[in-house]
Amino acid sequence: MDKTIRQQIYSDVKKWIYQAGGEQIRVQIDDKYQIDTKSSANDLVTEVDRETEKFFAEKIRDKYPSHRIVGEEGYGDKVDTLDGTIWIIDPIDGTMNFVHQKRNFAISIGIYHDGIGGEIGLIYNVMEDVLYTGIRGGEGAFRNNEKLPQLTEQVSIDTSIIALNSSMAFDNNRINEKKVQQLIMDIRGTRSYGSAALEFAYVAEGIVDAYVTMRLAPWDIAAGLILVNEVGGITVQANGQSVDLLGTNAILTCNKCIKEELLENYIELK
Ligand code: IPD
Ligand code: CA
Ligand code: CA
Ligand code: CA
Question: Where does Mg(2+) 1 bind (predicted)?
Answer without folding.
Answer: 72, 92
